[in-house]
Design brief:
It is built from 14 helices and 27 strands. By secondary structure, it is of the alpha/beta class. It folds into 3 domains: about 1-65, no CATH class; about 105-180 and about 190-240, no CATH class; about 305-500, TIM Barrel, CATH 3.20.20. Helix 11 packs parallel to helix 12 (about 470-485). The longest helix has 29 residues, at about 70-100.
Length: about 525
């Protein structure tokens, strides 16, 4: 289409116009009036007319501007070459920074690895180079996980620094040899072992002392390997479980006096405040610091010294039993009282015998429920042993005793801390007749009369075995004491006569104050 438009027909006048470097034509306007003569175009062969912008007109018609040959192809080749260079650079760079093998030193041995390998990969691939993991410990120091601590300890050294250290070691070794040289420059053969030792020691010091800093285990993953790195891998370290601190009540302790037959609380404890560390995993609690000190519970322990004496108190354990009525009859006949420490399980079997003690004007106290060794019980069992006995004795007699005698006399600071609020006093003895050994009535009698003092509490039994010797010895004991001027009273009366025992202890109405606190047990 363009070729047809660009063709110039011979013998026809045209007007050529050039716009934007290209030729355009249009027919000359038709003449008005008479005809005009138009110039004729050259027809004698191909004739070209060149223009400065590269356009030309010839016999065959008009052509556009000439384009330089080869310029587009060169640009394409340049682009391809640039792409090839970039591709090669990428491949080479990728290999250099990601794929090439490097050599690092671990514990003095060369190890081949891929560049920029994360440290954990190196460690796992080589089984942590024989290092053992640390343990995870509770806040109380107990092992929660044998392998729950730091996996291993890694020190990243400096190859150049290590080389410098080795050079220093060599210099030190050389100096050691030089020091052994004779004045004439020769060396003494006898000094050779010392030279070797000095050189070896210098080298050994270098090999055993890793340079650099220990890498935190949390930074292992972002630690990448580089050619020439030097690492020392050793056993991991123990770590503590996560924990937090909180404020808690500081329980009072127990301060117990020793040596007396009558024990009672003379000062109730009060709680303080402390800071504790609590293990997130174990739940263990460890004291950190005292914020406000606690006031300790104080247990007084005294031997009674009644005024206006002499006085003494007869006591019987392990009843009621079939021997209890016989003993009560003797006491009634001699017109003296006594204190009976009954067992709860025995009172449950013989409630009438328990009631008879109270009706006879004697004092009823507790020997616990089942005669257990109280220090062997936990807190709840201890409290149950004491409380259940009091419940049973109250049901049987109509009175609830607070005074107890612990079996075997065993009532330590721990028991006071766990159950001191349940009792008024723990009553032991000053004279043990050893009647449970059945030594004979005379021996039982002599044990009392030979050892009695003002305020003595005398231990005998009306239950727990054959008590015929006690029944036989009792009249002589009472008569002998009276002959020596003693007045026999109950334990509570003996306490009152002493004057040092609080009234609520004597009456058996002890109640722990509301602002007091029990020690931990």
């Amino acid at each position: 289409m363009m070729a047809q438009r660009d063709r110039v027909e011979v013998g026809k006048a045209t007007n050529l116009h050039y716009t934007g470097g290209r030729a355009h034509y249009r027919h000359a306007p038709k003449p008005h009036g008479r005809s005009s003569e138009f110039p004729k175009l050259h027809t004698g062969g191909p004739r070209l007319t060149h223009r400065s912008d590269g356009a030309h007109v010839g016999h065959g018609g008009w052509r556009g501007p000439r384009r330089p040959r080869g310029r587009g192809g060169a640009a394409a080749l340049a682009v391809i070459a640039l792409f090839a260079v970039l591709l090669c650079g990428t491949v080479v760079g990728g290999w250099y920074f990601m794929l090439r093998d490097i050599t690092v030193t671990v514990n003095g041995e060369p190890v081949t690895a891929r560049v920029n390998t994360p440290l954990p990969n190196l460690l796992s691939e080589h089984d942590y180079f024989g290092a053992k993991p640390g343990r995870l410990l509770s806040v109380g120091g107990n092992v929660l996980d044998e392998e729950g601590g730091v996996t291993c300890t890694v020190t990243r050294g400096d190859a150049e620094a290590t080389g410098d250290a080795a050079g220093d070691a060599g210099d030190a070794a050389g100096d050691a040899v030089a020091d052994q040289a004779a004045p004439d420059g020769s060396t003494d053969d006898s000094a050779a072992p010392a030279e070797d030792t000095a050189a070896s020691d210098a080298a050994a010091d270098t090999s055993q002392a890793p340079t650099g800093d220990t890498i935190d285990e949390r930074d292992f993953a972002k630690t990448l390997l580089h050619d020439g790195d030097v690492f020392t891998v050793t056993n991991g370290v123990d770590t503590d479980e996560p924990s937090h601190e909180e404020e808690a009540e500081l329980a009072p302790a127990v301060q117990r006096e020793r040596g007396g037959a009558v024990q009672f609380v003379s000062q109730w404890g009060k709680a303080g405040k402390k800071t504790v560390r609590v293990g997130e995993r174990s739940g263990e609690r460890v004291d950190v610091a005292v914020i406000e000190p606690a006031t300790d519970m104080v247990v007084s322990s005294i031997n009674l010294e009644p005024a206006g004496g002499p006085y003494a108190a007869l006591t019987f354990d392990d009843g009621p039993s079939s021997y209890t009525p016989q003993i009560l009859e003797i006491l009634k006949e001699k017109k003296v009282p006594a204190t009976f420490f009954n067992l709860g399980n025995q009172a449950a079997k013989d409630p009438d015998g328990c009631r008879a003690i109270v009706d006879a004007g004697c004092e009823l106290a507790s020997h616990t429920n089942a005669h257990q060794n109280l220090p062997t019980l936990d807190r709840e069992s201890l409290r149950a042993e004491i409380s259940s006995a009091a419940d049973t004795l109250e049901q049987a007699s109509g009175t609830r005793p607070q005074m107890i005698r612990a079996p075997y006399g065993a009532f330590t600071e721990t028991e006071w801390g766990r159950a001191g609020d349940l009792i008024s006093a723990n009553v032991l003895w000053n004279i043990d007749t050893l009647d449970w050994k059945r030594p004979g009535a005379e021996a039982i009698t002599n044990a009392v009369l030979d050892n009695v003092e003002n305020g003595s509490i005398i231990l005998m039994h009306d239950g727990g075995g054959n008590r015929e010797q006690d029944v036989e010895a009792l009249p002589g004991i009472i008569d002998g004491l009276k002959e020596r001027g003693y007045t026999l009273v109950t334990v509570s009366e003996l306490m009152k006569l002493d004057g040092r025992v609080p009234e609520e202890v004597i009456e058996g109405t002890v109640k722990m104050p509301e602002d007091a606190a029990m020690p931990e047990g």
